[in-house]
Design goal:
mainly alpha, Serine Threonine Protein Phosphatase 5, Tetratricopeptide repeat, DUF4034 domain-containing protein, disordered N terminus, 2 domains, disordered C terminus, 330 residues, 61% helix
């Protein structure tokens, strides 16, 4: 039986676990521990179980670790690691918590120590790409040179060629706003576009890049912001939207842990492109589960999601495009 279910007819809601019901139960227990500042052995066991239960579904394991790290705050992962210093999940949760803290202004996190934690975790379970993905993320935070990235990227690809979290970290690292350039982003996209299976966990990579470009253009203001919508008229953007809108909302097509996040991404992009009929289909496919990004760029994310869900997901879209066919070829 899958670990996730879709609930129909529910009010729009923000739940970080998306449709992973098991993870949601553990997250709520962890948040209770965080609020009282202590971690009991029963909750440690729950965290270990929910991480281990993912098995070799590395994508779901990363999703569960990311949600738990956000829920656990700074102290709880350290408590668990001290209690279970050779527990693979405890090491990874501690490293992920370090990364969350390191992204905050004036952080004092020692990312060399975080990379050592990743090494210890990699030694305990060599097949798991997650320690290498977290290592990549530390390089991104510190803007380390690309020569360091290449070796880590090879380790990830050897273990899980289409790991969603790793590809998103690489996209951020290679962006012109961080360590790379527009040309390097295009190289990454060109390198995966022809080979990636259409239902791979990292399938949202190109659309993520396009939405980020759109949001940067809007944030720049002036004439750049006025022309931001032109991004969606580019042939590459139209093809990406065509393919995603045709396939992703289909029942059971996307099966990875963050599928609902990618459907939110698709719905947002379709709204921005004025393709409201297709946006309504994507919004219905979310089952009412909203994500913070990308909606947060336009205001309160749940309010924005709820607005468009109410406007377009009823099946009565107001005049938007019904789609552009299947011009990408089949």
């Amino acid at each position: 039986m899958p670990a996730f279910r879709r609930r129909k007819g529910s009010l729009p809601r923000l739940v970080p676990e998306l449709d992973d019901v098991t993870l949601g139960r553990v997250r709520r227990r962890v948040e209770t521990c965080w609020s009282r500042g202590s971690l009991d052995t029963a909750v440690m066991a729950l965290m270990a179980d929910v991480i281990n239960e993912a098995g070799q579904d590395w994508d779901r394991k990363a999703h569960r670790l990311g949600v738990l790290a956000s829920a656990a705050g700074r102290s709880l992962p350290g408590i668990w690691r001290q209690h279970s210093p050779k527990d693979h999940g405890a090491l990874l949760l501690h490293a992920w918590s370090d990364l969350i803290q390191a992204r905050r202004q004036d952080s004092s996190v020692d990312l060399d120590a975080t990379r050592e934690t990743c090494r210890l975790a990699a030694d305990l379970l060599p097949d798991d790409p997650t320690p290498w993905t977290l290592h990549l993320a530390t390089l991104r935070v510190e803007r380390r040179p690309s020569t360091e990235l290449a070796a880590i990227w090879r380790e990830i690809k050897a273990r899980d060629p289409w790991n969603r979290e790793a590809h998103l970290q690489a996209l951020g690292y290679l962006s012109p706003q961080e360590c790379g350039s527009s040309a390097l982003v295009l190289d990454l996209l060109d390198g995966v576009r022809a080979l990636m299976p259409p239902d791979a966990p990292a399938v949202g990579l190109e659309l993520t890049s396009l939405v980020r470009s759109h949001q940067r253009a809007v944030a720049d203001g002036g004439m750049t912001a006025l022309g931001a919508g032109e991004i969606w008229r580019r042939p590459d953007a139209a093809r990406a939207l065509d393919q995603a809108a045709h396939y992703w909302p289909g029942p059971g097509f996307l099966r990875h842990a963050a599928a609902l996040a990618d459907l939110n991404l698709l719905a947002y992009a379709l709204v921005k492109a004025g393709r409201t009929t297709e946006a309504g289909i994507a919004l219905r496919a979310t089952g009412g589960v909203a994500t913070v990004w990308p909606w947060t760029m336009d205001g309160d994310p749940l309010e924005r999601f709820t607005h468009f869900h109410g406007r377009y997901a009823s099946g009565a879209a107001d005049g938007g495009s019904a789609g552009r066919g299947t011009s990408w070829g089949r």
